[in-house]
Structures are given as C-alpha cells and as structure tokens.
Predict the 3D structure of the following.
Amino acid sequence: VTPETAQRNRILAHLPAEQFEHIRPHLELVGFAAGEPLVEPGERFEQLYFPVSGMISMVAVLKDGGGIEAATVGYEGMEGINVFLGVSRSWSRLMGQVPGDFLRLPVADFERELPAMPALRAALLRYTAAMLATIGQTAACNRAHEIRQRAARWLLMTDDRMRRGPFTLTQEFLAQMLGVGRPGVSLAARALQQAGAISYSRGHVRVIDRGVLEEQSCECYATVNAEFEAVMG
Ligand SMILES: [Zn+2]
C-alpha cells in the first residue's frame, strides 16, 4: 500500500511518514460491495477498516430481524472504534453500503503497533468524540425530523463521502437505513427529484443541486458537519 493510497483516508492522513511505516506492511486494500456483511453484533473484530472510497453502514439490529442505521463511515473515518477503546466485540452490524475500497488492518497488528503511533491514537480519540456526537444527533433526528428532510441529509452526507460523485442506492436500502417504510421513501425521493435536487433512476443517484438539497435537509447535516470539522480539525 502506497502512502498516497493511505492518505485518501482522513484518519491515516494524520500519520507522519515514520509512524505510518509501522502499519504499512500490514494494510491490505480490499474492495467491498453494497450489502456485504463485515461484522455481526457480538462478533469479535478481526480487522479494522479504513475506507478510502465508498461507505460502510453501522446498523443497530432489532430482535425482529430489522435494523436501523446508527452511523455511516466513509473515507473520513474508521470502523472498529470498539477495538481502540479496548472492547474486542462489535455491538452493531457492519456492512457495505455504497461500494468502494477500504484498507484492512488486522487487530493484532493494530494493537501491537499503536503505542508507536501517537498521531493515530490522537486522531482516533478525536474521531470517537465526533462519532458520539454524530450518533447522538442522529437519535434526535430520527425522532424529530421528517422522512424527506432525513433522506436529504443522508444524500448530502453520502455525496460528501463519494467526493461529489454519483452513487448507486436502492429505495429498499434507503428505507431500511432510515428506518421507515418503502412508500415513504419513494415519496421523499420523488419530492427531492421534483425540487431539482437529485436525479434518481434505476438505483443511480446523482446530486444535481447541492443548494436545493441543503434547503430540503433538516439542520442535522450542517450541525454534524460543523461538529466534525471542529473536533477533527
Ligand atoms: Zn435531522
């Protein structure tokens, strides 16, 4: 893995070259698909995941088999915070959301090398704080804001993670992620299309007008972004 590839992940980009060398030989670039299972609730993490493209979803799984998205992770973050916090198991389901690539790091190598990488430790502490804020805001958002606003927020966030490129997404998937019925998501997607914010055809999404999409979104998109930038710097 070249330093250039690793720098496409914002956490790894915090690492000075000599600290990066501690994990470089253990990183592996792997593609992932939409819906691809990575870790189930209660399972031990074998790997940490640093996306360089695409998006991974962290899903809270309910007893009836349903699941609602608690958070997403793209190139700005890492999946496997629990390991960093000293907990080897996952509380949530991790799965591919929008296809992409991540750098995979075995947990054993991470734990052995972390003491030699204070910059990684500092970045992960800040990222943990940002992630807690994001999950808290999302809990409020799910209770207080309408489906169309939440769909707009989700699409803006995904557009950022895709570095403003088009992405694929089924309505079924979006409904599951937002924890709402499919008809509600269809209506929301149509309204966003009619407003000129997005184009959406056969599962391909493209953001046409960011300004309109931001107007359609609730405050949570801007709130979380501001918090994330303030914390991560
Ligand atoms: Zn909201």
